[in-house]
Amino acid sequence: MIDADRHEVWLTKNVQVTRDTTDGTPAELLELVDAPDPAFDEWLRDLRAQDPAVTTEPAAHPSSVNTGDEEQCGTTLIIIRSNSADATAQTKFLETVLADTISQRFESEGADTVFALAEPSEDRLAQASTILHLEMVSVIEAGFWSVHLRCLADKDRRFLCSDRLRLALESKHDSLTAQLSSFVSRAISQIMARYYACRNASVSPLMMTTRAAARLYDPSLERVIAAEQDLSCLETSEALATSISWRGFAKLVRCLEFRESNQTEEARALAQDAVDMRPGNPLVVAIAARIEMDLIGDLDYADWLVQAALGGSDGNPYVLQAAARIALKRGRTEDAQRLAQTARLAADGLPHAFAWDVELCLTALALGDFSGAHDAARRAHRSNTRHRASLRYLIATSLLVDDQFEAKHAADRLAGLESGFRIEHLRKSDYPIHTLQNLGLVGELQYQ
Predict the structure, then answer these.
(1) What confidence tens digit (pLDDT) does each residue in 382-398 have?
(2) Which fold has domain 76-203?
(3) Of 323, 359, 374, 386, which one has the fewest beta carbons inside 10 Å?
(4) From CA 190, how far away is CA 323, in angstroms rounded?
């Protein structure tokens, strides 16, 4: 059988495949399937007309074949350029801020070689296995700064994607930082997705690390372990610290989501190794802080890590999420809500942005805003209908606002992911809804 989410398609293992037909004669798999597709046939005819060689030898998936003539894993070179003509001093300043924000985000994801408003040497270009050309054009008009950003790939400069941003020049600093961070998150997510879809991403450890990390939010333990194994194979010079850090996050997920308590020490060791390698990397530090507070219970060390990261990158969504969680655990609910809102804006466009909606749900619960918590849980669930934490808090908040109908339907969906789940399980002391338990709200969950 085939299963899928909005990011991946995969074969499930719960059905045995036979190669026999009903009369017992051998047959090739799918040989008897007749599914005409006129649109596909027309597309294939056009493709053959343009280049007959395209269909004569089927190309293998880039990650499945690796011959001696192919590119090997190497450096991902990122070049950020400004193509603005006659730029004013104010335009140059804003473009530099944007270029630095993009650079910081790529570096936090594991990129080692970023040229911001500068050109690499010919030798570097020749040695790079993956090249991303980010080119911006911006203008200031009528009190607004408008910027167009596009990305081209590799030496042939193939178009990948583009995006636009329009900011009021009178925006406050916090608002400007959040909107820039949101724009950068969205742009980088589009770049990664488009590159993986149409280029050979297997030559870029950065691309593969980002792809594997997104799969750690999957509801299947089997697929989380598979993503963790992929990360362990990507520990090369590029993205080394981030791949180790994400492996620590995988252990965190297995502890909290799947209740594998034997993963705690390894999670902490991996996170600390990553911090030792890249102490200034916001993503690495944020994951280490999450492990310290959620698994070890050392809020002081987690807080110290986050504050140090905020000083160098106050717009990183992972750091802001960790800061919101610490504020929540320390009882600073208003600070937690403000940080969670800023973090969610900064995370806009990430493939797993629903995790930040869950954070908004938790802070709303702490403030006693059950309606706001319910809305946040709904948004998280709509973004990923297979995310277990979203479903758990959707059930709980539905009960808190006395929406019995939605609670029942959400429970039915969760039972499809957690065999045997019943709403009564929410009252168990070891069930993973820790914020509800810490706030003493479990007793208020009344199901009819």
Answers:
(1) 999 999 999 999 999 99
(2) Rossmann fold (3.40.50)
(3) 386
(4) 26
